[in-house]
Amino acid sequence: MKDMRLRCIIFLLLFPFVQVQADNNDIMHMPIPCLIKQLDQALEKNSVYVEQKETRINLLKKMLAHTDNLTDRLKLTTELSNEYQYYICDSAMKYIDESWKLVLREGNANHQANVMFTRIRMLLSIGMYSEALEILKLFQVNELSDSLKKQYYHCSEQTYNYLKNYAIYSIYREEYEQKSSLYLDSLLMITTKNSNQYSRTLARKLKMDGDVNGARKIFNELLEIYDIGTRDYSMVASSLSEVVTDIEERKRLLLLSAISDVMSAVKEYKSLRDLAVIFYNEGDIEHAYHYCSICMEDANFYNARHRSLETAQIQPIINRAYSQKIKEQHHRLLICLILISLMFVLLLASFLVLHKQNKKLNYTKQKLQDANNELYALNRELQGLNASLLESNQIKKDYLNRFMILSSSYITSLKQYQSTVYSKIVMGKINELKTNSHSTEMIDDLVRKFYQNFDEAFLTIYPSFMVDLNQLLRENERFELLDNNALPPEFRIFALMRLGITDTESIAKFLQYSTNTVYTYSTKIRRKAINKEDFNKRILLIG
């Protein structure tokens, strides 16, 4: 079973790219589902096969238009009528008429007979049996050559066989069958044995005589000779389907015949119509309707009345079944739609309930989030406060340490100065003492040490103060910072402001400046600021 499925898949993959490359024996043993897919694919590609046929026809037409030779024109019109024979009957008749005009000009009796037999076969294809009989009556059989006799017997047998199939009353059907059988006997007598034509004629004779086993054996042998995609393969497969008893085997043969018909781009056939009937009986209405519709389209395209009538007999039945199936599908679809609508309503109701609950949950979550945000903000404030307290404590510690060191230094200096004064008085160096008391060197040295200690202490706490303050000034007004450990005199004022000392008099006393000097320095710096309005606020944010 796996091997069979694998062969089916491989064949379906290769089929769109080749026409007659597959081995007939492999095709014969393809699973029926694969053959159905094969046929559906061939029908989808029908336009490709038609285009190939039209290309051949157009080439023959161009050749015909460019030749004046009587023999060549007769050959080309014959080929064109053969191409159109199972494709478009009106066009086939047109070129048969052209051939008839040519053979009349030529005056060759054998060629005229060949054209007449071609016309008969065409008339049989379109169901004009009485017209075919009228032409057959024109022949004198004894005057015909063996090759023409073969055509005469074949056309006669075919005519009566078709009449038998369409005869309403049994008395006429038996008469036509007897005449068809006699012409088959005559055809067998003059046909070369071991030829394909002989085998096909013999198989038909055995079938007519009731020897279906013998007929089936010969048809099976012939099916291995012809290639799928040819008219001969289609006809042999169709004939073989009529002598098998197993319905699955008959379906397989009709599928093969229909595939070959599509590949050869013929519009006059019966295999696809017979398949439609089988699929209808099996309950596969979709395939039956599809195939029946194609049969009717092709019959109308070919313009064969008897094929249209044959299809018209079964089409209403299949159409009704297809319509009933569509109604059932619509009914099931309506039920499904109602169920889906109910499910949608339930889903919508569930969604609304969930949405309401979700809103409540979101409200609660928002409340929790707001509370968390407040706690987070409070925590940040506490952290900031702690940091400020720590910073403030650190500043106090640093300044207390430096104040104690500086005070100790001042005490030491005063002790030294007191000792010097005392020594001068004891030694009577009053004038020298007066001179020293008028000197500011000691005071200047103490102030310089004070500034140095203040700058170092402040920059330890705010190391980027000078750079940050400089950035608040316009670019062309900024100070050139040379010594990172010493503040410019103007910067010391704002350093004290950063420490929280904003009173001008306090700043002046602290820095040993005059009040006017403090005001002048601070005003000078503010004028250089990029943003004068909030300059003092930005000072407090440094560090």
UniProtKB/TrEMBL annotation:
**Can you tell which superkingdom this protein's organism belongs to?**
Bacteria
Record keywords: Coiled coil included? yes
In this chain the DUF6377 domain maps to 261-508
Assigned keywords, A-Z: Coiled coil, Membrane, Signal, Transmembrane, Transmembrane helix
| InterPro entries from the UniProt entry | DUF6377 (IPR045957)
Q: Where are the bilayer-spanning segments?
A: 332-354
Pfam families cross-referenced by the UniProt entry: DUF6377
Signal peptide start and end residues:
1-22
Query: Coiled-coil regions in this chain?
Result: 354-388
- Name of this chain's protein: DUF6377 domain-containing protein
Q: Which organism is it from?
A: Bacteroides eggerthii
